[in-house]
Amino acid sequence: MDSIFNLKGKIALITGGAGVLGSNFANVLAKQGVITGIVSQSIEKAEKTVKTIESNGGQAFAIQANVLNKEELEKARDFIVEKYGRLDILINAAGGNMPGATITPDQAVYDMKTEDLQKVIDLNIIGTMLPSQVFSELFAKQKTGNIINISSASAQRPLTRVVGYSASKAAIDNFTQWMAVELAQKYGEGIRVNAISPGFFIGEQNRALLLTPEGKLTPRGEKIIDHTPMGRFGTPEDIDGALLFLCSDMSKFVTGTILKVDGGFAATSI
Known about the structure:
The chain is of the alpha/beta class. It has 2 domains: 11-199 and 236-261, NAD(P)-binding Rossmann-like Domain (Rossmann fold); 204-233, no CATH class. Helix content is 45%, strand content 14%. It has 10 helices and 7 strands. Helix 4 (70-84) packs parallel to helix 5 (114-142) and helix 5 (114-142) runs parallel beside helix 7. The longest helix is centred in the middle third of the chain and has 29 residues, at 114-142. It starts with a helix and ends in a 9-residue tail after the last strand.
């Protein structure tokens, strides 16, 4: 595996690296010999992920930073430059949703809470754009760098109820393509920007929407599975191949791409 992807010794930083998908990304990269930085608002959660990686023989470090705080991100960048001299990969895995930015079956769009909508938009859009801005400045100086954003199946195919999340993830697709062109044209082919678009994965934020307390499918869960040709929800490990592909030189001529990992959801029509 190491010889195929050739990632040993690379330096990566993962925002939201203590979350379900982010921590899985960190562990996957660490197993390939990547020195992995875990960014989280909770230093305790970040350090827990680091300990897991180290217990498996990998190398990692924890950074406490808010992806909406430019000054904290700049301090993180300066720390990495001082300690490692460079950064090779930035994965923007921080993001999420909240109830007030969704529309339940017994609500109308007029019931949506503006303050919650703003928080979701800020976290998903600004929380991706700001780290990209801060760390791409380092990539521009190096003439090399790799940014991977996290999109969603709801970006390309808007879903009922999750209006704030869908809109903000659609913006991630647009930003990914814009940033890919911006960096390649101004700083050369050594800088790439892509996104992974996961389908439906069970997490703490959507568990109650998709599964009953007994673990059965909810009506919404049933609709999603009916429109997923592979007939199941994804697992974090299902993204491993896409992640390693985009992180490595195997994708050195790939930029501005949204790579779907959704069991065929986006390809399905009624």
